[in-house]
Amino acid sequence: MKTSASITLALLGAVLSATTPTDAAELTTKPTIVLVHGAFAGSSSWNAVITDLETDGYRVVAVANPLRGLATDADYVARIVKSIDGKVVLVGHSYGGEVIAMAATGASNVKSLVFVAGLAPVAGESAASLGARFPTGTLGKALAPPVIQANGDHDLYIDQAKYRAQFAADVPQAAAMQMAATQRPVTEAALGEAAGPTAWSTIPSSFIYGSLDKNIPAALHAFMAKRAGARESVEVKGASHVVMISHPLQVARMIERAAAF
């Protein structure tokens, strides 16, 4: 005769076998989303996007981009990507686009790249040289006097009084003022540093950007998306440079579509 304990274990086993998939093909593992902010911003610029992605069951890592130099920043992000088990979707905003394009080179677990108002250079190009090809951006006129570091580096900030108009025109005034006060500087050298090998030529890419981006003109975004053979390219009408803040759902949905590539 079976004891009550053995009956309980048998019932538990039956429940587990009925609810646990036995065929590995039935298991679907979502990739980890790694978000990389750009200059004059921080990881908190992804907050609304993170909330939406996590609600939909994605694990998210928002990297604190050092903003010290393109090669060193890319190496920093590459090491984080390497530490993650499973597939990764790398997402970069602005200068962070350059960083993810380099960080993904040779990274076997990166399945797709998403450029959110992000730069996508070829080897030898820089943020400065790309801007010179489409000289309608107004960032240079909006910068505050540089802060000179002990090693001679020039830290660049956007003048707080010009921040909203230049960077976040479609963000509420109070939020834009907080962003201006908490902005993280990038070195002038990083913006002039030439990119090394980049991965968008071999990894599927998507682009989303604002039609009223004053840092990186929409025409430059369209050029980079076409050159990259992007799977998807979306221009958000009326959006500023921080499209992930003003239109987080559109950005999150593009990331989720890229996760399915």
What are the key terms here?
Rossmann fold, disordered N terminus, 41% helix, 3-stranded antiparallel beta sheet, 261 residues, 15% strand, alpha/beta
Brief summary of the model shown:
The protein is an alpha/beta fold and 261 residues long.
> Main sheet: which strands, in order across?
2-1-3-4-8-9
Question: What percent of the residues sit in helical stretches (DSSP H or I)?
Answer: 40-55%
CA(first)-CA(last) distance: 55 Å
> Tally the helices: what do you get?
12
Mean of residue pLDDT values: 91
Total separate domains: 1
CATH class: Alpha Beta
Number of strands: 9
Oligomerization status of the protein chains: single chain
Q: Runs with pLDDT <50, length 5+?
A: 1-27
CATH-derived topology: Rossmann fold
Counting helices, strands and paired strands, the structural category is alpha/beta
Mind sketching the topology for me?
Elements lengths: L3 H16 L12 E5 L10 H9 L4 E4 L6 H13 L5 E6 L1 H9 L6 E7 L10 H7 L5 H4 L4 E2 L5 E3 L3 H8 L5 H10 L3 E2 H5 L12 E6 L7 H11 L3 E5 L6 H4 L1 H12 L2
Parallel strand pairs: 1-2, 1-3, 3-4, 4-8, 8-9
Antiparallel strand pairs: 5-6, 6-7
Helix pairs in contact: 2-12, 3-4, 7-8
What does this structure look like?
The protein is an alpha/beta fold. It has a single domain (29-259), classed as 3-Layer(aba) Sandwich (Rossmann fold). Helices cover 41% and strands 15% of the residues. The chain contains 12 helices and 9 strands. The strands form 2 sheets. A 6-stranded parallel beta sheet has the order 2-1-3-4-8-9, sandwiched between helices. Helix 2 packs across helix 12 (248-259) and helix 3 crosses helix 4 (95-103). The longest helix is centred in the first third of the chain and has 16 residues, at 4-19. It is globular.
